Amino acid sequence: xxxxxxxxxxxxxVVFVVIMLAAVLSPVLPVHNPNxxxxxxRLQAPxxxxxxxxxxxGRDQLARLLSATRISLWAALQATVVGVVVGVPxxxxxxxxxxxxxxxxxxxxxxIQSIPALILAIAVVAVLGRQLTPAMxxxxxxxxxxxxxxxxxxxxxxxxxTYVEASRSMGQRxxxxxxxxxxxxxxxxxxxxxxxxxAFGILAEAALSYxxxxxxxxxxxxxxxxxxxxNLLNSSPQLTIxxxxxxxxxxxxxxxxxxxxxxxxxxGGGR
Amino acid sequence: xxxxxxxxxxxxxxxxxxxxxxVFALTAVSPTxxxxxxxxxxxxPATVAQLRHQLGLDQPTLARYGHxxxxxxxxDLGQSWFGNVPVTTKIAQGLPATAALVLASIVVTAxxxxxxxxxxxxxxxxxxxxxxxxxxGLLLAMPEFWVALLLVLILSQxxxxxxxxxxxxxxxxxxxxxxxxxxxxxxxxxxQICALYRQTRASAAIVARQDYVRTARAGxxxxxxxxxxxxxxxxxxxxxxxxxxxxGRMVGIAAVVESVYGMQGIGSMAVQAxxxxxxxxxLGIVLVTAGVVMAxxxxxxxxxxxxxxxxxxx
Lengths: 271, 314
Fold this sequence. Notes:
Strand content of chain B: under 5%
Radius of gyration of chain B: 24 Å
Largest sheet of chain A: none
Number of strands of chain B: 0
Largest sheet of chain B: none
Number of strands of chain A: 0
Structural class of chain B: mainly alpha
Strand content of chain A: under 5%
Helix content of chain B: over 70%
Order of helices and strands of chain A: HHHHHHHHH
Number of helices of chain A: 9
Shape of chain B: globular
Oligomer: heterodimer
């Protein structure tokens, strides 16, 4: 059972890396220009020239999917990095120090958590205009309470250990204690939060760009490809199905890997 | 019980205050000038200046926050920048549709995930556990609005089982409402069912391994009764907490699904307002949503308090 699950996770990791490489390297791969329109070759069926056919403006669907995946992955990465940068250092600090800073900062994160991620992103877009980066930064901020809570919990457990007390009594500064003793203990728990946030980042990007609040034309993401495809849902459903399948594949691979990491690091190596 | 609720409210009230400050801070950093946005491109500097004065925009930021907060306490969220409608009126128009959508989704989520999760958790490795576990992993990866698009294609356009997208306003005709809400509710619920299923299954499996459950099982008590009398209450505490958090997530996702489906809820209203940079509407919806999320978490806490007497000291 455990072996089977880990084999699945390994396959998922390989698939994810292959998709990621294909997306990142798409500008140098031998595919069409994703924005080149061949209006005489609109909505073509798959062929040798267009492996996945063409869209409503005669653009190569495969090339569009690859460049869209690149933008979606980049967006999810932005959200994840923001979540880590905002949540982890503060969580490590308050978990180690405790006391008043802990209760004040924890309240702040509670307040952030009461705003749903997508609603926060919509509000930020309303204020700053339709751009993907601010929207994804706000998704990261909305997820920072989870990073904060996980690193704070791990830090406060470690802070009670005798060896931390010992190094404190030897006059080590808090920052040093966090870096030397606490950080290593948090990494395993953080990997799970990072993968969850990355997966949600992909879904959130898709939703925001679908609504026209994220990436702006002519560049396309997996979400914005669905906006134009939705109008052709009845006649050309493949244009809607394909970007959706890429999203599902990416998110599924990430969660399979994350589940395996979780079962490996939790006590007993599995349920 | 009452004292516990009072303490939780005392914690939540300052939070709403912090949220209100965050929301106002957003307007303060906005590069758009409200007066110019309302009057449009062709306005003369003099009329812009006059409107700025009327709106109090020529005052310092902190003073504006004070006025805004004072009006907020009177239930006044300001006016939409387009059409001069009070924000509260607009939100009240959209609230019934969103409330119906989210509440129906919460009920469906709990009704499917909890029994299935308890059952699978009592028999880890069994057939239900394996099939539901695999299905949950797959369904969790699906974007809700994409599911909604495909359901509309299959159920409405191909099979003609349900009405298509359109202006869904909640009406007294309950049957019609149910037909309209089916697709959006399925789309919103599916991933949440999976998340709640996983949580319930995991905690039921932990409780089922406890010595007192094993003893009772050895004593010949059937699984059904075991579940009812010894497992369910303890296993459901984390699920109830998650359900409280899921309500917030659903409100966010409702924004997307409502837009796909052409529903006139506060979610699609927020999206429209964001596309038009109609800040008062968006920020009003953020505040209302935050309030609802806090209330949901409070309700979840109270329910946990009832379910698990041990946690009552917390």
